[in-house]
Amino acid sequence: MKKVKINISGIHCASCATNVERSIKQLKGIKSVSVSVMTNKAIIECEDSLANEDLKNAISKGGYNVKGLEVV
Amino acid sequence: MQMPEREDGANSEINILKRRLILSWIFATVIILLMFYERIFGAMLNEKLMTVLFLVLSFPIVFIFGLDTIKSGIKGLVTLYFNMDSLIALGTLTAYITGFFSLFFEIQDYSSVSAMIMAFFITGRYIESVARGKASQEMRKLLELGAKNARVVRNNKEIEIPIEELKVGDIFIVKPGEKISTDGKVVKGISFVDESMISGESMPIEKKVNSLVIGATLNQDGVLYVKATKIGSDTFLAHVISLVEEAQGSKIPIQKAADRVTSVFVPVIIALAVLTFSNWLYFSKDISISIAAAVAVLVIACPCALGLATPTALMVGSGMGAQRGILIRKGEAIQTMKNIKIIAFDKTGTITKGVPEVTDIYSEVVESKLLQIAASLEKFSEHPVAKAIVKRAGNIDYLSASDFKVFRGRGVKGKIRGSEVVIGNRLFMKENKISTVKIEGILNGYESEGKTTMIVALAKKIMGVIAIADTLKEDSIEIIKKLNDMKYKVVMISGDNETTANAIAKKVGITQVVANVLPEEKSKKIEELQRIGMTAYVGDGINDAPAIKQANVGIAIGTGSDIAIESGDIVLVNGSLTGVLKAINLSKATFGKIKQNLFLAFIYNACAIPLAAFGFFHPAIAEAAMALSSVSVVANANLLRRAKI
């Protein structure tokens, strides 16, 4: 299990935050995900086997940009 | 750290919105003037030309200043990742297109309305961004708190270097009035340091050699030479920031309901708009009225108010906490707090200072003489009890002692000016053939109060008794009383024997005591309490981490940088119990604000959408109402600052 923080741009409303959550949740191995419209950050708990690239792709697929990724 | 960059990002977003807002309203004003002119003086131009003029004037507002919104909205519609913009894009585009159609068919031209909708939308977003910026002001202050420079000696010269160049082990100098560059240990100098920005503790704290200092706190009157122990992302401040930030991103259970609504909100509204349109068309046979009602439904609906209700209040609340040394690690704790019935406290280090102090002295000679002899011997010992005695003796002239020896669990022995000095418990006296019969009454008296007694004997003759106990923190009595008044069931859990535990409990006003609890059993005791009611546990977080975890709300309490910051749902940086009360008040106030906000947002949508569907709102007014609702939610969150914490 790992914890990943992702800085995202383009989240300007609450629906955007739920959209990002939705696209991340579709990945396999996600335990929890929380995206805040206030901090523009996603905090994800997921299996170690899940590649960070997959997380990034899921976010950009929904039309949002990844500005930074940090494994805590 | 990446945060300052984000702040710039937020600022530049506000500036962009501001520019768009001004430009939009320049065009919108022209449109409004034209509309009024037409109303009052009749058509100044022929109707078709007028429409063309509106289409031209509206174009920049909708398609240049509102381009981001239109683009993101359409993208949402295409990918089925609907968002707020989808509604606005649908609404404005529908209205705009009527302008073209009106050139060829019998239909009302709503192109000017599309411009008004977008202008109001941009205005709303601008005000909301400013308000959101305000909501995070405490967080921003925290981010700006760190020192930028460090003063070091290089080649025998004092120079200032950027903080990034400072390494662990470097010695830096802090002059009076300067910020301490990073976490470290004082190697030279003495001074008072204001740690209020980190702990909320208003009294400056004395720092001398070997004291630990926290980066970003303010040195007051002396010069300190500090050896850097932690830098960059390892510092206490950096930990606090990342912790608060994480909490702000965490979900509160109550928000999940709101999220469920937001996630289906947009498609539902689009369906409602279609329904509105077809109903109006069926009953009124007037396509223009039908379009107006449908557009009003699209733009009046406000998922944002719902979605912003929780995070904005959480942002303000956790920021307020951070300023007062209350770190909310898990947003959930805010909601759980209101259901807490029982508050269990660890004794040592939580209710008490955790450091033994001399409380009473019985002396057969002059008291200072007794202390002088005792301290002259005890200064060789590292035992906390010995330290307490030395501390109480203060600045005295030590007598030269020899043959010092420690007897574990008994006491110490040595020679002062040729006479034998024995300090210790009853057992030790007996072993040294010193009778304690004469002072039994005094010993029993102290012991019934839970105090440890040290008997001092000089040349086989008892000189006196020093009583030592862990003392209460200054505010313990007051806070426990307040918690009792608030109808909480207050419980003390302690590893001490019943006498000691009860003595402290009685002093502090706690009636329920669980004594003789081994550290590993504490979580089990919490479990038992939880059968009676939701339980919060306050402990130091170091040896009672499992108990903190077990409790419904775990509160870790500590002093300055020693704190176990990674444990607990709430962390109190300042060691005093006042923080517990403040944390309760803050949680309740924040949760109350969240509920208020969600209520506002639900009620707004529940009233506004039907009214729009029944055609009570002009689309432009509908958009203004929408903007107002999301702004008012954020503004209301900012009002949390007025709460008494």
Task: Characterise this structure.
The complex is a heterodimer of chains A (72) and B (645). Chain A has 72 residues and is an alpha+beta fold. Chain A has a single domain (2-71), classed as Alpha-Beta Plaits (2-Layer Sandwich). Chain A is 31% helix and 39% strand. Chain A has two helices and four strands; from the N terminus they run E-H-E-E-H-E. Chain A has a four-stranded antiparallel sheet. Chain A is globular and about 30 Å long. Chain A starts with a strand and ends with a strand. In chain A, 46% of the residues are buried. With 645 residues, chain B is of the alpha+beta class. Chain B folds into four domains: 3-139 and 246-316 and 591-642, no CATH class; 149-181 and 183-230, Calcium-transporting ATPase, cytoplasmic transduction domain A (Distorted Sandwich); 323-352 and 473-587, HAD superfamily/HAD-like (Rossmann fold, 3-Layer(aba) Sandwich); 354-471, 3-Layer(aba) Sandwich (Calcium-transporting ATPase, cytoplasmic domain N). Chain B contains 23 helices and 22 strands. In chain B, the strands form four sheets. In chain B, strands 10-22-21-20-11-18-19 form a seven-stranded mixed sheet, with helices on both faces. A six-stranded antiparallel sheet of chain B has the order 2-1-3-9-4-7, with no helix packed on it. A six-stranded antiparallel sheet of chain B has the order 12-17-16-15-14-13, sandwiched between helices. In chain B, strand 18 (489-493), helix 19 (498-508) and strand 19 form a beta-alpha-beta unit. Mean pLDDT of chain B is 90; it is low at 1-7. The chains are: A alpha+beta (72), B alpha+beta (645). The interface between A and B is medium-sized, with 29 and 37 residues.
